[in-house]
Write a structure and sequence with these properties.
The structure is a single chain. The protein is mostly beta strands. It folds into 4 domains: about 55 residues, no CATH class; about 90 residues, Roll (SH3 type barrels), CATH 2.30.30.40; about 100 residues, no CATH class; about 120 residues, no CATH class. It is built from 5 helices and 29 strands. The strands form 5 sheets. A 9-stranded antiparallel β-sheet has the order 14-13-12-11-19-18-17-16-15. It has an 8-stranded antiparallel barrel with strand order 20-21-22-23-24-25-26-29. A hairpin with a 3-residue loop joins β25 and β26. The protein is elongated and about 105 Å long. It starts with a strand and ends with a strand.
């Protein structure tokens, strides 16, 4: 067909409509921009037509209010549209991509599709919450928005963010990052891709299967079909409430962090590597007439020989003197004048308690270590010393 006009302002094409094959006689029709593609040549158009035939009559009904359409076939890609419950989309074709992850940690069953909304948005949607159907005749009936379906910028903002446990916010505020806890990814997930909201915390893991997220007033939403409610306190603070089986109403707070959890872990690993390299560069071999020789390797491993005087009070009897150093501890501000920091030595060849905590201090001659009792550690921070501390001094083998 001939194309006469493209209007980006009105978002339409004006095209010629034939009365019969090859005859136009000035009949014109307006078509939305998204419903017309230029292929480049007749041969290419015919080839495209063959590939599109399986999808020519294929549509999908959305079964999950708020289901996102994304810019790419990845659940972490940018969301370009949020579908209403019952909204119909046109299937344009299949697409390869990474499937979303279920509440069990397994990939969801389904397929990524390239889709077109009635509003003209094109993107990718995973089929787990779509009901596919063929429409050969007549017009497809689209859902008419109700008052509850109208755009909700605040809800869009909530669904676009990652809501982490306030535990992580406390870590950031104190500057003490516990990587092991960060890696567990404690969070609140509204579940707009699956219709299953999840709360994951150290002492709690719950899930709520819902139909839609409905506004219950200013900055408050209900997950229909559940007793779960969320309230936006600030742009970075979200309150989540639910009723436990005992009937007690529980409220939890989650926060939108300024940095991604993965980035925080990378930064903390870099800090630990810097601390370790300070010790390594001072040595890496440290020796004592009484307590043997400690050698640190650039890989983070260590060997320790000649430590007989520390067995078994400090070092387990059966160990062969090798393991890993982990710069996973912080120190109380009250110790910062006397010590550079703290670390953990973990012996890898013993069945008994194989972890020893140390405060450490470096000087021009060597390395001073002080054994920290288990009760001296709180939240990965050395808060108390032993009333009768065991102090070990090692000289640097290489002069500095």
């Amino acid at each position: 067909m001939p194309v006469y006009i493209k209007s980006n302002i009105e978002k339409i094409w004006v095209v010629g409509i034939p009365e019969k094959a090859g005859t136009y006689k000035g009949t014109k029709k307006e078509i939305p921009l998204t419903q017309l593609e230029f292929i480049g040549s007749k041969r290419k158009a015919e080839k495209w037509l063959e590939s599109f035939k399986p999808y020519a009559t294929l549509y999908a009904e959305n079964l999950q209010d708020g289901l996102p359409i994304r810019a790419a076939t990845d659940n972490n890609s940018k969301r370009v549209y949020r579908l209403r419950l019952g909204e119909i989309v046109k299937i344009l074709g299949e697409a390869q991509g990474v499937p979303p992850i279920s509440t069990t940690g397994d990939p969801l069953p389904g397929q990524w599709y390239r889709v077109l909304t009635n509003d003209g948005v094109i993107g990718y949607c995973f089929s787990f919450r779509l009901k596919l159907f063929n429409q050969n005749e007549g017009s497809v009936q689209y859902t008419v928005p109700t008052q509850k379906d109208l755009p909700d910028p605040d809800l869009d903002m909530i669904l676009s963010k990652i809501w982490s446990s306030e535990i992580y916010s406390q870590m950031i505020n104190t500057g003490r990052i516990n990587i092991q806890e960060m890696e567990k990814n404690y969070r609140f997930d509204p579940g707009q891709d699956t219709g299953i909201a999840r709360i994951i915390l150290p002492d709690l893991e719950k899930q709520f299967t819902y139909q839609r997220i409905i506004s219950e007033g200013e900055h408050t939403w209900n997950f229909e079909g559940t007793n779960l409610i969320m309230e936006l306190k600030t742009n970075t603070t979200l309150s989540v409430q639910f009723t436990e089986s005992s009937g007690i109403r529980r409220t939890l707070l989650f926060t939108a962090l300024s940095s991604k959890v993965d980035d925080l872990i990378i930064q903390e690993n870099a800090r630990r590597e810097t601390q370790f390299m300070t010790i390594y560069n001072q040595g890496p071999v440290f020796s004592s007439n009484n307590y043997g020789t400690i050698t640190f390797l650039q890989t983070g491993d260590f060997t320790w020989t000649g430590y007989d005087l520390l067995v078994p009070q400090i070092i387990p009897q059966e160990t062969k003197g090798g393991g890993r150093i982990n710069m996973d501890l912080y120190i109380s501000p009250s110790y910062e004048e006397r010590y550079n920091g703290a670390f953990t030595l973990t012996f890898t060849d013993t069945r008994q308690n194989n972890t020893i905590y140390f405060l450490y201090a470096l000087d021009n001659q060597g390395l001073r270590l002080e054994v920290v009792p288990d009760y001296g550690i709180e939240n990965i921070t050395v808060m108390r010393r032993s009333p009768s501390p065991v102090v070990l001094y090692f000289f640097t083998d290489t002069p500095h």
